[in-house]
Specification:
Layout: E1 4-5, E2 10-11, H1 17-20, H2 30-36, H3 45-48, H4 63-78, E3 83-84, E4 90-97, E5 100-110, H5 111-115, E6 119-120, H6 127-140, E7 142-143, E8 147-151, H7 155-165, E9 171-174, E10 180-186, H8 189-200, E11 205-209, H9 211-227, E12 239-246, E13 252-253, E14 255-259, H10 267-274, E15 278-284, E16 295-300, E17 303-309, H11 324-334, E18 348-352, H12 357-365, E19 371-374, H13 380-388, E20 399-400, E21 411-412
Parallel strand pairs: 6-11, 8-12
Antiparallel strand pairs: 1-5, 2-3, 4-5, 4-10, 5-12, 7-21, 8-11, 9-10, 13-20, 14-18, 14-19, 15-17, 16-17, 16-19
Helix pairs in contact: 4-6, 6-9
Length: 414
C-alpha cells in the first residue's frame, strides 16, 4: 500500500514565485538555462543548474558546481526567496495546457516503497545520470525538484481535489511557455489525515516521468537510513518529494522518430520493403496524423504516407508487443534500416510530439534527415500494464507534457 506523508515545504513567497520557478533541470542544457536566468538572481537555475554561475563551458559535474548549488540554496533561504512552512502540509498542484487541467498531490513518498517495488517503474535508468542527481540531493540535503507519479483513480481523493481547488490558491500564474501553474496549500489536519489514509488504500504508485530523479532521491534516502546507527524509520530522509496525479488526468503525447539515411535503399526500395508488413497508402503533401494504434505516419521525399501494420506483425496480448514503438523498432528501424540500439545509434533522433508533426517535415525537408515516422501515443493503461507486469518500455516511448515546474515546493531531508 502506498505510504505518503505531509511535509514542511520550502517555497517562494507568493510575490516571488514567478521569478524563482523554472523548468526541470533535464529539459534544457546549460546554455539555455543561462539564457533563461539572465538578469534574474532569484531563478532556481542557480540551484539546479549552478554551472550557469561559472564561465560558459565549465564542467557541470565539477565538485565546485555542486558546492555552488549548496551555497545558492543557503543564500535563497537567507534572503527570504525560499521560506519553510511552519507545519507539515500537503499541496495540490494544477497544470493547465491547451484548456485541459490536471491536478496532483504534492506528497512525501516513502523510500521503502521504491526500494521494494511498490513505486513502479517502466524505464531503465543510467547509473551516471543517477549519480549526478544523487550528488545534488546529498549535498543540498533536499529534494529540490519533485518527481512525477501517477496513481489509479480514487473517488475520495478526487473529492478532496474538488473541495480544495474551490478555495483560494497560493500561486496562480502562466509560465513563459504558456502553461498555467496553480498551487493550493492543504493545512487542514482533517483533510491531511484523509489524504494519508486514502493513499494507504492504493496498491502502487507509478513513475510517469523522472526515473533518474526518483532513483536518486530514493537511493540517497536509503543510504542515510543505512548510515544512521539510530535509524528508526520515521526520519524525514525516509521520504522524497513527488507530485502524484490520478491516472485519468494524464495524457501521454507522441514521441516520434527521424532517421538520417535509408540504409543504402532508394525511396522506392524502402517503400517496397515496408509493404511486406504494412499496408502503405500515399497521403500527399498535407500532414497526416496516425489515426489509431498500429497506424503510423511516414514522411519521405516531400510526401506523407499512412502505414498500417498487417495482422500478425504485433501481439496485442503482450504488454510490450502491443506497443507501436516495438512494431516500428523491430519491423522498420531494425529489419529495414539496420538500427538496433535506439539509445546510442547516431543515425536516429527523437522528436517530442509537443513540437508537432511540422517539425518532422522541417527536419526532412532541410536535408538533415531522410525520413520521419510519427507514432500513435502510448496510453496510461498501457504504461500501468507494463509496470505491473515488471516489463520495461523501449527507449523514447513516452512524452509527458506539461512538465512539472520546479521551485514551487522543496523538501528538506532533515
Amino acid at each position: 500500500m502506498a505510504k505518503v506523508k505531509p511535509f514542511r515545504g520550502i517555497r517562494p513567497p507568493r510575490n516571488l514565485v514567478e521569478e524563482v520557478a523554472s523548468r526541470p533541470y533535464d529539459v534544457l542544457n546549460s546554455e539555455e538555462a543561462r539564457k533563461e536566468a539572465e538578469g534574474n538572481e532569484k531563478s532556481l537555475y542557480h540551484i539546479i543548474k549552478p554551472e550557469i554561475d561559472f564561465e560558459p563551458g565549465f564542467d557541470e559535474h565539477h565538485p565546485a558546481v555542486y558546492d555552488k548549488a549548496v551555497e545558492n540554496f543557503k543564500l535563497f533561504q537567507e534572503k527570504g526567496w525560499l521560506v519553510q512552512d511552519e507545519k507539515e502540509n500537503y499541496y495540490i498542484y494544477a497544470q493547465t495546457m491547451d484548456g485541459r487541467t490536471q491536478y496532483g498531490f504534492v506528497v512525501g513518498a516513502w523510500v521503502p516503497d521504491y526500494m521494494e517495488g511498490r513505486i513502479k517503474k517502466h524505464e531503465l535508468t543510467r547509473r551516471d545520470k543517477e549519480e549526478d542527481r544523487m550528488k545534488h540531493v546529498r549535498c543540498n540535503n533536499a529534494n529540490i525538484e519533485p518527481v512525477f507519479f501517477a496513481f489509479p483513480d480514487n473517488e475520495k481523493l478526487e473529492g478532496i481535489i474538488r473541495k480544495v481547488t474551490a478555495g483560494q490558491p497560493e500561486y496562480d500564474f502562466v509560465a513563459p511557455d504558456g502553461f498555467g501553474h496553480t498551487l493550493w496549500v492543504i493545512d487542514d489536519q482533517d483533510i491531511i489525515d484523509q489524504i494519508t489514509s486514502e493513499f494507504e488504500k492504493i496498491p502502487a504508485l507509478y513513475i510517469a516521468d523522472g526515473h533518474h530523479r526518483s532513483a536518486a532521491a530514493a537511493l540517497v534516502g536509503n543510504e542515510k537510513a543505512q548510515n544512521n546507527p539510530d535509524h528508526k524509520g520515521d526520519e524525514e530522509y525516509n521520504y522524497f518529494m513527488a507530485v502524484a496525479f490520478p491516472a485519468s488526468h494524464l495524457r501521454i503525447i507522441d514521441y516520434n522518430r527521424v532517421v538520417r539515411d535509408l540504409n543504402g535503399l532508394t525511396p522506392e526500395q524502402f517503400l517496397d520493403r515496408l509493404k511486406e508488413n504494412f499496408i502503405v497508402e500515399e497521403k500527399g503533401e498535407e500532414i497526416y496524423t496516425p489515426q489509431s494504434l498500429h497506424n503510423f505516419a511516414l514522411y519521405l521525399g516531400g510526401k506523407w504516407y499512412s502505414l498500417t501494420a498487417k495482422p500478425g506483425t504485433y501481439d496485442d496480448s503482450d504488454p510490450i508487443g502491443v506497443l507501436d514503438v516495438t512494431v516500428s523498432s523491430d519491423l522498420i528501424l531494425r529489419d529495414i534500416l539496420g538500427i538496433t540500439d535506439l539509445r546510442s545509434d547516431k543515425r536516429i533522433d527523437f522528436v517530442g510530439g509537443i513540437r508537432g508533426l511540422g517539425e518532422l517535415k522541417r527536419r526532412v525537408d532541410s536535408g538533415e534527415m531522410a525520413m520521419a515516422l510519427a507514432l500513435h501515443p502510448v496510453t496510461m493503461d498501457q504504461l500501468i500494464n507494463i509496470a505491473d507486469t515488471g516489463n520495461i518500455m523501449p527507449p523514447k516511448t513516452t512524452w509527458f507534457e506539461p512538465k512539472l515546474r520546479s521551485g514551487l515546493v522543496i523538501h528538506k531531508l532533515d
